[in-house]
Specification:
Two copies of one chain form a homodimer. With about 80 residues, the first copy, chain A, is α+β, with helices and mostly antiparallel strands. The radius of gyration of chain A is 15 Å and the shape is elongated. Chain A has helices spanning about 15-25, 50-60; strands at about 1-10, 35-45, 65-75. Chain A has one domain: Mth169, Chain: A (2-Layer Sandwich). Chain A is built from two helices and three strands; from the N terminus they run βαβαβ. In chain A, strands 2-1-3 form a three-stranded antiparallel sheet. The interface between A and B is medium-sized, with 30 and 30 residues. Strand 2 (about 35-45) of chain A pairs antiparallel with strand 2 of chain B, so a sheet runs across the interface.
Chain lengths: ~80, ~80
């Protein structure tokens, strides 16, 4: 089975990578960019249930204080 | 308009974050994990065409030597 985990920042938490990317794009002249958000994706393969992947998020992949995660199966 | 850019490693390039995540998961006892790949996602909002976003990938977001990018519009 193949799972996709997406880790993003919770609302209200500073997404410093998104902010610095926005600033870099503007410096390069992309003046029409309004907002950039950064997220991390992990593609995880193995004989794993959704519950296993949730546990991976809770124990290693996501910071419960500042990050949200979402899990989807890749067909 | 809102665009999603996904940056991943080209085939044959070492995905060190994927490898270290795999190793960390095994250390935590997730022995059924076979493979982990890491990727980066940017959600970019603004009055931008697909060509603008391609140019952003080529000039800032992706390393053309080691990374691939894919772009999709978020509805």
């Amino acid at each position: 089975m193949k799972w996709e985990v997406r880790i993003s920042y919770k609302k209200g938490v500073l997404d410093s990578e998104g902010e610095s990317t926005l600033s870099g794009l503007k410096t390069l002249g992309f003046n029409n960019v309004d907002n950039v958000k950064a997220a991390k994706v992990y593609l995880i393969e193995g004989n794993l249930t959704r519950r296993d992947v949730e546990e991976m998020c809770e124990r290693l992949l996501a910071n419960p204080v500042s990050q949200d995660y979402s899990i989807s199966e890749v067909k």
